Amino acid sequence: MEPEQIEEMYEGISEINFMSHLQIEITHVSFFPNEDSQLFVAIV
User: Which SS3 state, helix, strand or coil, does residue 33 take?
Assistant: First the structure.
């Protein structure tokens, strides 16, 4: 991924709000690309 794409992804993650009141903190993000797609893993 390009650096701009990674930055945009992190900005989008910070805006996630589950059930309007439950906040989570993502401490690490990993990417595992393959031929057909990418797997995105977040440690919360």
Answer: strand
DSSP 21: T
Phi, psi values for residue 35, rounded to 5°: -65, -40
Cα gap 11→33, rounded to integer Å: 21
> How many Å apart are CA 38 and CA 19, to the nearest integer?
26
| pLDDT per residue as tens digits for the range 8-35 | 877 777 676 665 666 778 788 887 877 7
**Pair 3, 19: CB distance under 8 Å:** no
Q: Which amino acid is at 14?
A: S
